[in-house]
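Q: Convert this sequence to structure tokens.
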Amino acid sequence: MESPEGYWASRAALEWQVEMGADEAMLDAPADRYAASAEEAKPQAAIAPAQPARPPIPEPAPAVDAPAMARAAAARAATLDELREAVSGFDLCELKRGAKNTVFSDGNAAARVMIVGEAPGREEDIEGRPFVGRAGQLLDRMFDAIGLSRTSPDAQSAVYITNVSPWRPPSNRTPDAAEIGMLLPFVQRHIELIDPEVVVMVGNTPCQALLGQTGITRLRGNWTQVLGKPALPMFHPAYLLRNPAAKREAWADLLALKARLKS
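A:
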């Protein structure tokens, strides 16, 4: 064992070496501290964590030509029942997603007069029949005044009713041009299958669809042609509820229709 005097002598020598700067063990070869300091100062590249393999990006689905598919579906319908099924099964129109029912038609399919409206409202969407709300009740009174009715079993005094859109638009808005263009083949086939003597278009939307024109105040009362059949634009009954003064023009149009049917 080392004596106490030897311990204190060794400690004093070590402390003297530390004070002189010899504070670490020496290597077998000299070390360049300047180079080591420069290397430590270099920024170290962050090691990115391993990323999981990304799944391949799927190819975009080919665009669907909805109007072309509507034309094909409508052309295949040889009867009203087949057309109803084609319309009910058409899923490419966004209006269908928010509707409760597909509102196809009402009235006597043998009628001389076919009425084409705009689109179902809330009551029509619930009941599944066109023109059953306040506007529909006014429409019934208007045509009843010239001896026509949707409930008549006699084709001579009956009317048949449908709309450009079989589905209620959100908030009862007007169908836009793309929706009208998509649904037009069904309306045209509907007219062909019913084969009425006269087509009555109530409001701007059927005029836009079947005539390519809008401006019902200018168009109303002027006879035209739709698919080779006499056609009469009239005010929509909803417009007449908002503008009672226009009922005088509507009555004149009804009388013109009555005279046309008698000729």
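The chain has one domain: 66-262.
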